[in-house]
């Protein structure tokens, strides 16, 4: 994990993305909203872009790199989880350390009902690592769900050339949001914990143990505690992709053999000369077989079909693997996909031990002759300059491959599947429904359906306030009345009040929390309430002004009577209710977290002119006298609903809801 700050405003625009960076007031003391966590490739591309923009500038004056150690010491930074939380993960991380960390996290925040976690760098920058990482993540998720009341996990991927990684992870249960750019330090405050897989290839034990076991270990789970069957991959294949591939394949009676010679790097790829020998050998030694080749090359046969155009996405590639009888490939994504589709496969390993993928029952790995003696041994990739020096040695090694042995291995795997066909089904992972991605959930209040934020906690104080407001509304409102609701939230009480006054009445609502305001408008529209006006404003002050309030995100946990749940600030326009010049108002409700007294002060002329019944709450008991004194100045008779905490009965009265009756007492409120 790397952070950075820039001294000049800059727009990083590359690979179909654009990110606008704020300039830090000082590189030595940047603010939380000007420090950024680097996503995959982000810092490298930024350094190059800054050099191109200001070639003569001193790089240290343009950019400050901030280490992981500095970031995690920042106040409010999420807790590191997994083996990466330890300075020496190989020797310090205990077995099942994730369980211990989650219990500590929960103990530190005992009242939190939902925990939000982030995986920085996702599960790596290529498809193969990501698929194996997802397999491990399913086990990690089960631990998270067992130890935390509720949890969601976001992935921070990066600046990739296409959306293949995003498509692979987007429908996995437990993964909520997929990010393709780094977050600011201020935005990181929404998370309670993080896993960090940055610089994946350099992390301890990577490549030194079975890959799925490595992911389990890095995320804090003892690999030996997970059954081998649970270490196999899963896949989701959309029906439309399956149909599209089937329609493009040439009908054949014999076996279809898919050949994939390319990995994400040349080190693990098959050179064209060896590929040509392999194709010719299959066509001559296996007369009944047809070959499907993932990449174009200058070779022709009626039994050879190029499939690159019919596999434009990872979904189509998965569908293709379900419709072939065997795979011959290199150490890349297709072999891991073949495990999920239960497709017999043979993998030529050029740089890694055969034991890194031991859990694929229909997959056999063969070592490139002399691979352990070559310069790339034990590495997933090498620098371009190193490859230029080593490529000829690898070509010689590929020339020594016995393709008879390769075909024999594939026939063994195919015979194994044929002998117990039902034991090797396609391993589908369920695709969660679209509701998983929503930020709201449905509630029914007074017989009315409305959406409320999905992370909104149940709050007895808010429920009591809403019940009080609705109850008073039933006593004092008639059809045709005007009701004003200041701090309406998503409309839990405002919508029932609007229904009470009917189409000839009026609801005037103010809500300063942007996402709740948007949800309030949506709920009003869905309920068919046209006799309402909703204002995105803070109803206080003497004129028009702008100030900043804490941002509230519906994706994060919050209490309905709280202003925000983030350290980020956003502007809000402030203007008093009196500026609206309402001619009539029967019920005026002022709801926390709005500043009750200053909001009522901004409604003084409205109170004096309309003399509405007023409900204000929830407020601390210590503030009751000030509001009572203010309302008494208008001749109001104030009644107090005293509220104590049932969990702390000895603490006495702590909160109050005020109901104020105008002079003359004509409302007769109870």
UniProtKB/TrEMBL annotation:
InterPro entries: SAM-dependent_MTases_sf. Gene3D superfamilies: Glycogen Phosphorylase B, Vaccinia Virus protein VP39. This is Methyltransferase, FkbM family. It comes from Methylomicrobium album BG8.
């Amino acid at each position: 994990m790397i952070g950075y700050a820039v001294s000049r405003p800059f727009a990083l625009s590359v690979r179909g993305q654009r990110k606008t960076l704020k300039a830090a007031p000082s590189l030595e003391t940047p603010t939380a909203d000007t420090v950024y966590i680097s996503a995959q490739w982000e810092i490298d591309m930024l350094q190059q872009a800054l050099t191109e923009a200001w070639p003569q500038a001193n790089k240290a004056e343009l950019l400050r790199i901030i280490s992981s150690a500095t970031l995690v010491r920042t106040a409010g930074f999420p807790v590191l989880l997994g083996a990466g939380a330890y300075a020496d993960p190989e020797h310090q991380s205990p077995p099942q350390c994730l369980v211990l960390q989650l219990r500590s996290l929960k103990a530190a925040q005992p009242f939190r009902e939902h925990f939000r976690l982030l995986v920085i760098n996702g599960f790596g920058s290529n498809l193969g690592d990501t698929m194996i990482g997802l397999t491990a993540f399913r086990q990690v998720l089960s631990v998270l769900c067992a130890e935390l009341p509720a949890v969601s996990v976001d992935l921070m991927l990066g600046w990739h050339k296409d959306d293949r990684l995003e498509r692979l992870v987007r429908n996995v249960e437990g993964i909520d949001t997929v990010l393709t750019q780094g977050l600011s330090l201020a935005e990181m405050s929404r998370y309670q914990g993080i896993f960090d897989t940055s610089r994946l290839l350099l992390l301890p034990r990577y490549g030194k143990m079975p890959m799925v076991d490595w992911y389990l270990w890095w995320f804090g789970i003892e690999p030996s505690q997970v059954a081998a069957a649970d270490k196999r991959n899963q896949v989701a294949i959309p029906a439309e992709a399956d149909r599209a591939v089937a329609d493009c394949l040439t009908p054949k009676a014999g076996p279809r053999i898919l050949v994939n010679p390319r990995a994400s790097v040349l080190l693990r790829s098959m050179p064209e000369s060896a590929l040509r020998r392999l194709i010719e050998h299959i066509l001559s030694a296996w007369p009944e077989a047809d070959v499907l080749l993932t990449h174009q090359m200058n070779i022709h046969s009626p039994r050879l079909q190029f499939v690159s155009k019919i596999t434009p996405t990872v979904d189509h590639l998965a569908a293709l693997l379900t419709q072939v009888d065997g795979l011959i490939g290199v150490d890349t994504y297709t072999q891991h996909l073949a495990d999920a589709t239960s497709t017999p496969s043979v993998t030529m390993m050029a740089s890694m031990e055969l034991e890194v993928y031991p859990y694929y029952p229909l997959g056999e790995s063969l070592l490139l002759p002399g691979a352990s003696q070559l310069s790339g041994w034990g590495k997933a990739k090498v620098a371009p300059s190193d490859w230029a020096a080593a490529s000829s040695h690898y070509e010689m090694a590929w020339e020594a491959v016995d393709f008879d042995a390769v075909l024999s291995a594939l026939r063994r795997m195919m015979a194994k599947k044929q002998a117990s066909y039902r034991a090797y089904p396609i391993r589908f992972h369920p695709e969660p429904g679209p509701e998983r991605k929503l930020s709201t959930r449905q509630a029914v209040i007074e017989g009315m359906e409305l959406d409320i934020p999905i992370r909104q906690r149940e709050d007895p104080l808010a429920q009591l306030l809403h019940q009080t407001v609705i109850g008073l509304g039933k006593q004092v409102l008639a059809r045709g009345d005007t009701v004003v609701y200041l701090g309406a939230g998503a409309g839990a009480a405002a919508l029932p009040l609007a229904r009470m006054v009917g189409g000839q009445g009026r609801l005037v609502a103010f809500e300063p929390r942007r996402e709740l305001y948007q949800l309030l408008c949506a709920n009003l529209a869905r309920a068919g309430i046209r006799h309402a006006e909703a204002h995105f404003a803070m109803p206080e002050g003497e004129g028009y002004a702008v100030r900043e309030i804490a941002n509230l995100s519906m994706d994060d946990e919050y209490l309905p009577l709280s202003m925000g749940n983030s350290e980020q600030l956003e502007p809000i326009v402030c203007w008093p209710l009196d500026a609206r010049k309402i001619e009539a108002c029967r019920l005026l409700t002022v709801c926390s977290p709005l500043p009750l007294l200053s909001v009522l002060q901004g409604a003084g002329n409205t109170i004096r002119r309309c003399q509405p019944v007023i409900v204000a709450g929830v407020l601390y008991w210590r503030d009751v006298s000030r509001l009572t004194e203010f309302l008494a100045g208008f001749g109001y008779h104030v009644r107090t609903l005293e509220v104590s905490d049932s969990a702390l009965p000895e603490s006495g009265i702590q909160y109050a809801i005020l109901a104020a009756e105008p002079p003359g007492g004509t409302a007769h409120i109870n």
